[in-house]
Fold this sequence. Notes:
Layout: H1 4-14, E1 25-26, E2 49-53, H2 63-66, E3 74-76, E4 81-88, E5 91-100, H3 111-117, E6 123-125, H4 128-133, E7 140-144, E8 152-156, H5 167-173, E9 177-178, H6 184-191, E10 200-201, H7 209-213, E11 218-222, H8 226-232, E12 242-245, E13 258-261, H9 269-288, H10 291-304, H11 312-324, H12 341-357, H13 368-371
Parallel strand pairs: 2-5, 2-6, 9-10, 9-11
Antiparallel strand pairs: 1-3, 3-4, 4-5, 6-13, 7-13, 8-11, 8-12
Amino acid sequence: MSRVAAALAALLCAAVAGCSGAPEQPAQAAPRLPAATGAERLSYVCPATVVVQQAWEPEADHAATYQLVGPGYSIDAARKRISGPLVAGGKDTGVRIEIRPGGAAIGFGTVPAQMYLDRSITLGAVPTDLAISTSASQPVTAVVAPLAKSPMALMWDPATHPDWNTVDDIRRSGARVLMSQGNAATALLTGKGLIRPEQVDTGYTGSPVRFVTDPTIAQQAFATNEPFVYQHEVTAWRKPVRYQLIADVGFSVYPEALSVRTADLGPLSACLTRLVPLIQRAQLDYLANPGPTNKLIVDAVAAFNTGWTYSPGVADYAAATMTRLGVIANDTSGPLGGMDPTRVQATIETLAPTLARDGAGVRPGLKAGDIATTRFVNPGIRTR
């Protein structure tokens, strides 16, 4: 997720003594957990440490992987990593998990680039549009999608625009639409005529200043973050905003698809056969009781101290919002965590031409099966 203002703050923080270099701190004493057995036992089929590279700083949108971190975990503030036993249903699977944040920790680079730079990474969070963009030179294949749709949205001030209800209302008004540079959603919105190209301003930096000082504009946002933050934490605003998900008008990417380097599908297949269903169940466990995982996420953000901020209120709001909006939901293909190949192919056909035109390394003739597979997904794991 593009959070350019946080990126700038993080770079500033890095230049200030004391922003990093804190020793590794155990979060809690490690109780003795019962050992997992059968298909939940990951030792001997998975790496001794399953390394997950996230795309951004810790937040509830990534909860499926943080949910796997068991008691006795540690937060390494200097190296920006969380590590602990990989736990499923309260049982120790016999391996460890290490979660690495994106953003400042990887120089604001992409997850595929990091995966190919550091071969110790087992899984990386790669949205469908990025998998398309890097398919020629850094191919990755998604094996499970914890989020069924993107929480990216366009938001507006309901007091200034009481007649706006949808993206189409924004188009008809001719109002300025503030987006971040390189956002694939912009290509979809303009390519489908949902927003006029002349409306788009790609100067969004993540800062609330433009929106607060000019509430006539629409602005990109994440439904899991900005609506709460603007109402409760942006002191110059502190009132509600309205929004529509871009997913609801055709932005069909899987935003947090956990992926492997494509060449590693074979070598990791025995591990993925057991691990992927545990990730699916972890998302269900998070929905049932988000509190402990949200605390881990908030604590990690505070320890990492990169300029990204994340309060308990935002985490709780995000958990409720992801359920309410169907961001965490059964896929159209059936299970939680599934990836509908028809949808993936449609996303390729919609975005690949524009991405290639803009210089992305899109593999010629790219097909859904090249960037996503459901062979490891348990079709019986679903929300109610």
